[in-house]
Amino acid sequence: MNKTATPGRAAAFLIFTTTHAGCYNAQELCRQRAEADAGARLEEVDLGSFQVALPHILGVATDHVVDFHAFGQVAGRDRSRVAQALQARGAKLRSDMLLAMRGLPDATFEEPQLSALRQQIIDVINGALDEKLVQQVGFYHFTFDRVE
Q: What is the pLDDT of residues 109-130, one digit of tens each?
């Protein structure tokens, strides 16, 4: 009877698989990871300053004004593309932002974390860009004033 698996072959196979099972190029993996991380790092892009007078409510003697300067956080690889698009579509962006802010209830501007407002700004900016590039929004300055 001819056996193809001899003890010598089995030992050679076992040595080969244990010494080569975890082989990889660590430098190449580190380089690929660094490239992916560089593109995924979030960078700030100035979204502009906005001062919006909220709609007047009949019978109420006070009005409200929202004044803020916002920045968006985008992936590093998208930063220049977003900045160019914001500059090119500035008028539409300002119009869309005005409509969005005036449609929000006053409670949105009084929320401690301003999370609903941040999400609304993200939606307006990404809608103007036609892509979901802005991932987070922060404020350099924010006030919600009552005008009597």
A: 999 999 999 999 999 999 988 8
Query: Looking at 8-17, 21-30, 50-59, 69-78, which range is the least confident one?
Result: 8-17
The pLDDT mean for the chain works out to 83
User: Which domains are seen in the chain, by residue range?
Assistant: 7-37 (no CATH), 42-147 (3.30.479)
Q: Tokens 């036609």 appear where?
A: 130
> 96 vs 30, 77, 88, 127, 144, CA distance in Å?
43, 26, 14, 9, 19
Tell me the C-alpha distance between 24 and 128, whole Å.
44
pLDDT in tens, 35-56: 666 556 889 999 999 999 988 7
Report the pLDDT value the prediction gives residue 5, as an integer from 0 to 100. 57
What is the DSSP track for 14-78?
Answer: HHHHHHHTT---HHHHHHHHHHHHHHHSEEEEEEEEEEEEPPPPTT-S-EEEEEEEEEEEEEGGG
